[in-house]
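step=encode ok
step=design start
structure_in=
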């Protein structure tokens, strides 16, 4: 479950209010909030002046070969949100992201709401693509529970319940506006759950680039670290508001056991378009406290590819600290 302290809600001015500008750094934009603490709504502020990270000495990243169509590894300065690329493969190619989209779904759902806000399960939500069969129409769940189900086990029904509160079309519009605020120019979203939608007789799916996804998760760490923290949990207990209907949601990230003394997971999300197209993004720190982001898009085995990338990061850091 969420840590049961109150997660401060974040507000992003969208649609009728409009999105204000964002600060540019390293070719990207990010947003930050001044504080967290209670259930009060905090407006997002945009600031300039972040400095590009410049390493004090050069250590080459090891040669790495993976099967995924797109990949990205970068060293992250969490204080500024700057990413220094270490390894890329088709980093600007637009590829499907499937349920990685739920990072944005959760972020948008949180805006201006208390975690204790309640949502009614709708027939539309539980009858969509890839249903979980864990919810019943008419039951009531808190935002906290739905966010946990959405982020930990990638529950499509929970994501659709969040979108149904204002209508999925309006909700997805807000997701795309948030993508623009985070300066993700090659990210296009059509659904709240990451599954395909039919628009004008054409099936479309959410797409982005390895580079955009890397900047998305780093930006989310800046504005909503507690939200990302949920994705590091191996399992959570989901309960309706009455406490009578419960189920355990297990993480879809099979690399959880990879993180321990050597690497600390700060956040991540899986995605599956189909059995041949799988996706994964993770943000993590090494034992020295240095942060890295790694992205794999459109892979036959995203966990295998990601494990290869993590091994390369390990080799890189060993060389880095040995030289230091």
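sequence_out=
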């Amino acid at each position: 479950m969420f840590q049961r302290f109150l997660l401060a809600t974040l507000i992003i001015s969208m649609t009728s209010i409009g999105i204000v500008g964002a600060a540019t750094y390293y070719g990207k934009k990010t947003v930050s909030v001044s504080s967290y603490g209670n259930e009060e709504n905090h407006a997002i502020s945009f600031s300039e002046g972040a400095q590009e990270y410049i390493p004090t000495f050069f250590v080459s990243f090891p040669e790495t070969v993976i099967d995924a169509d797109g990949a990205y590894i970068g060293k992250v300065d969490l204080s500024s949100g700057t990413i220094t690329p270490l390894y890329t493969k088709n980093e600007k190619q637009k590829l499907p992201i499937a349920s990685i989209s739920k990072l944005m779904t959760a972020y948008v759902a949180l805006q201006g709401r208390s975690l204790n806000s309640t949502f009614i399960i709708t027939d539309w939500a539980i009858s969509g693509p890839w249903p979980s069969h864990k919810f019943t129409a008419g039951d009531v769940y808190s935002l906290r529970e739905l966010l946990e189900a959405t982020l930990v086990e990638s529950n499509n029904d929970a994501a659709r319940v969040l979108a149904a509160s204002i209508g999925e079309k309006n909700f997805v519009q807000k997701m795309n506006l948030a993508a623009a605020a985070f300066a993700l120019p090659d990210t296009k979203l059509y659904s709240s759950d990451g599954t395909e939608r039919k628009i004008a007789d054409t099936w479309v799916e959410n797409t982005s680039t390895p580079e955009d996804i890397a900047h998305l998760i780093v930006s989310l760490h800046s504005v909503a670290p507690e939200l990302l923290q949920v994705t590091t949990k191996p399992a959570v207990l989901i309960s309706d508001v009455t406490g009578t209907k419960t189920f355990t949601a297990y993480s879809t990230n099979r690399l959880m056991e990879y993180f321990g003394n050597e690497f600390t997971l700060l956040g991540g999300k899986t995605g599956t378009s189909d059995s041949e197209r799988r996706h994964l993004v993770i943000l993590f720190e090494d034992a020295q406290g240095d942060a890295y982001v790694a992205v794999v898009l459109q892979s036959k085995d995203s966990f295998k590819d990601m494990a290869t990338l993590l091994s390369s990061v390990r080799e890189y850091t060993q060389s880095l600290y040995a030289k230091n």
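step=design ok
step=annotate ok -> The longest strand covers residues 263-274.
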